[in-house]
Design goal:
227 residues; alpha/beta; Glycerol-3-phosphate (1)-acyltransferase; 37% helix; globular
Length: 227
Amino acid sequence: MSDAVSDLPAGAHRGLHDVARLLARWVFRPAFRIRMRGSERVPRTGPIVLVANHTSMVEPQLLFGLLPRRSVFLVKEEMFHGPVGRGLELIGQLPVRRGEPDRTPLLHAVRLLRSGGMVGVFPEGTRGSGDVKVAELGAAWLVRSSGAIVQPVAVRGTRRPAGTRRRFRPTVDVYFGEPFALDVPRGRAGLADATEQLRVRLADTVAELDTWRATHGGSERTRDVRQ
């Protein structure tokens, strides 16, 4: 590899990664009406820790396709089995054990960030309401170890509300907030404080999207919107 900047882990295939991005960009179009706002805010170069809320299995794949640059996500280790696992490795995604101390994928992610890549993290750690009421320490640790900028992104509409019937092509909104620098002091207390700051910024981004959806609707037929 002759590039001075490596945006994928060692062993990943750039061509397959780009094909996978293209597929992910379009595979959900028949199932969802996708509206995207703020993608111009995403820095095209330099180390970025992308943080997003998490309500379904769709968000990682959707963001992977919609992001304007190559990205590597921390994916639960259970997915790395058989052909699917091999495919994830080839397109450069990193396995992580949920709920267990596991610095190996984080160290791989730090190396990637230091070489100018983008790493995607779901700070909530597991699927839920997506309101970002809790956050794990990993994202802030990556920022402290790499000096990366944080890019918040909110996604709404992928999860069927409880007690409702299956929806026909629901509207899914993807909203990129303003990227920001995060100061992460040394020590666990500094890491915890920075994690709370990150959580609040991401939760605020989700709240901004919720307010926008309340005005613009979340289920009407619409074309993609880019502002």
